[in-house]
Design goal:
SH3 type barrels; three-stranded antiparallel beta sheet; about 10% helix; about 90 residues; mainly beta; about 35% strand
């Protein structure tokens, strides 16, 4: 799925919000313009703002599903692509 929108290719916050809060959540990756990729494995690991998203990053094996080790602030203008991966998980 491409993230291109009305703002010259910038990720639209509505698109990210819709993906993050789907009833049947599907894990996804956010690909950034600098090559960084963030995996969002649970709906509770992303907070969407109009221009920025905060991503909960899981760095250690064994971290509980909806718990972050650290956080990354992502300016949505730098999101170039959003892709699904893995199995669907509940957003409960």
């Amino acid at each position: 799925m491409s993230a291109a929108g009305d703002q010259g290719g910038a990720m639209q916050y509505r698109e990210l919000f819709k993906r993050a809060k789907m009833r049947s959540f599907k894990p996804f990756r956010l690909h950034l313009s600098d090559g960084t990729v963030y995996e969002v494995k649970h709906a509770d690991l992303v907070v969407v703002g109009r221009r920025t998203a905060v991503i909960g990053v899981q760095e250690r094996a064994g971290t509980p599903e909806a718990v972050a080790d650290t956080f990354a602030s992502v300016d949505l203008i730098h999101v170039t692509q959003l892709t699904e991966f893995g199995r669907p998980k509940s957003a409960s």
